[in-house]
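Name: MAPEG family protein
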Amino acid sequence: MHSDILQPMVVLIAWTLVMLGWTLATRLPAMKAAGVDMGKLVGTKASDADRSLPPQVQWKAHNHNHLMEQPTLFYAVCAVLALSGTGSGVNAWIAWAYVGLRIAHSLVQATSNRVRARFLFFMVSSLMLVALTLHAALAVF
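Structure predicted for MAPEG family protein:
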């Protein structure tokens, strides 16, 4: 069974991997420049890197972490919609909007990190997630 809503799911997964690559491509050289010896690191946490690496480098890592948070709900609700046979039409369009907004959020956070713009993209994408959740509830109850 094919459901159109699977496509935006895969695109957001791919985007998350792009952000992981961008994180590594900027963070590893910054760690080297800061004299961080990964062989000597024991039990560190993400906030430790915030103290030793430039903010512009950390913005990519912070965004990758954000892509591990709310989008997990997106994946779950899209799976419900796909399995219930309601993952096409308007629900697929809403899912594409969510993905586009999350990618825009990533680009803002990873480059200029302007909070107002990030917040706008986050809030509108959250509304898309609410709509998908309501549609999933209607499909299964």
